[in-house]
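Question (not urgent): is this output format expected?
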Amino acid sequence: MSGLTHFDAEGKAVMVDVSNKAETVREAVAHGRIRMNEAAFEAVRDGTVKKGDVLGVARVAGIMAVKRTPDLIPLCHPLPIASASIDFELKEDDRSVSVRCRVRTQAVTGVEMEALTGASVALLTIYDMCKALDKGMDISQVCLIEKSGGKSGTFIRKDLP
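Got this back:
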């Protein structure tokens, strides 16, 4: 189990002890994408989905998910979230919506899981609100694209989606 911090010497799951770590400003950005059929894409783009403002609801859902991450992922530490944002980009060429979730804190551990959770829930919310128009939507490319702060320093994904 060498290198895996969420297991003890006997292989049992543990919450990592961060009590001796320094509090620093930490930030993470996650990305994801959902592709859909033409009817669903046009309805999202034009704001005509019957359930309402798809991107507005997905934005709020993603931010709420950031704050609830330790409730969803058992070994995540509860963190004081300083800021969380969700941004969307509609791409006509492949009828997709890309999401970026940026999370910032000043704490003893990072916010990578919070950013990934926020991006994922925003995408799932888009799916939920559009499934009457396209049950075959494809969620993909959910990944960490940046993180900064803490002992491990800065990470920037080289192959940005």
